[in-house]
User: What shape does this take?
Amino acid sequence: MSIRPPAGMLDAAAAQARASTVRSQIAGCGSYLPERMVTNHDLAKLVDTSDEWIVERTGIRVRHVAAEGEFTSHLAVKASERALAAAGTKADAVDLIVLATTTPDETFPATATRVQERLGMTRGVAFDVQAVCSGFIFALAVADNFLRLGQAETALVIGAETFSRILDWQDRSTCVLFGDGAGAVVLKAGRGNGLPTDRGVLSTRLHSDGRQHDLLYASGGVSSTKTAGVVRMDGPKVFKHAVEKLSAVVEEGLTGAGLTSADIDWVVPHQANRRIIDGVGKKLGLPGERVVVTVDHHANTSAASVPLALTEAVGDGRIKPNDVVVMEAMGGGFTWGAAVVRM
Ligand code: ACO
Assistant: This one.
């Protein structure tokens, strides 16, 4: 019988050897959307906009908005419970939670620790990452590295947001774009659990560029204004950056995985705008039917958008075991990244 060293106790050589053989495999995914739905027609009663304008410029028709008293952690817990059930994993088997959010319940502690407590976990480690709309890709990359280096065996990776709380509901150029929700995946170290090691996270690529701050930011923060602020954005400039950066990072991710765009079964893009999604697909030469689109009924849920879309496409049978799936996202900072996964 072999005895596994305690998590975090591998020496450098053992960690390196493990990283080259272990893959982080997606064992299950789940999502949750708040009950309340807000249509474009509802928004046209608040600001000078129309269903036609929003659909034509963004593809969005409806978004979900959290109820009063419903926080990011509540959405995250529901998505996590569903992901754990899909993976057939009990919460006490999880030794790592990485939660991506821009809209934490509180300034501290991390929303991830609220989720940890509500799932009944009394061990392991839980923390938040902040990369706005790219948050889930960043969280997935962090968890993947923990698993491959032997610092965890089972991780919950969550993207959860109540972006409605940081919108300026008088600014028609931003308030029509976003929604609330959460998605989660269970990642398991794919060695010694009977699964083939060619399945799992094949590569991740992350970037940031602080020079683009003024194109997309919140107008406040704890340290500067003692308030959360609201979303401010130069939409057309963000749009241009998004198509270029997302196409480039998908290519990088594919190269890292030793694949080309011809190997892609599905792209699960960040759901910001239908025209961005189509622009990236076109640049990569991908047929539209290989791209998962949920922006019409979720809008932009920031860090939650990729796991929400992934869960939908796994749930309805489009994404199947062994499919090569590319996830990509870009957000404020700018931050952007891609993950290539064999399901
Ligand atoms: N309803 C009606 N008119 C509007 C609205 C609205 N909701 N919002 C803006 N307009 C007006 C503008 O005031 C402008 O009027 P003007 O010509 O009289 O000045 C006109 O519509 C055109 O505005 P643009 O901003 O040039 O419109 P554009 O076609 O670029 O669409 C949009 C705007 C949808 C924001 C687009 O630029 C976009 O999607 N950008 C990407 C931003 C994004 O998705 N960010 C999310 C975070 S980052 C990310 O996730 C990638």
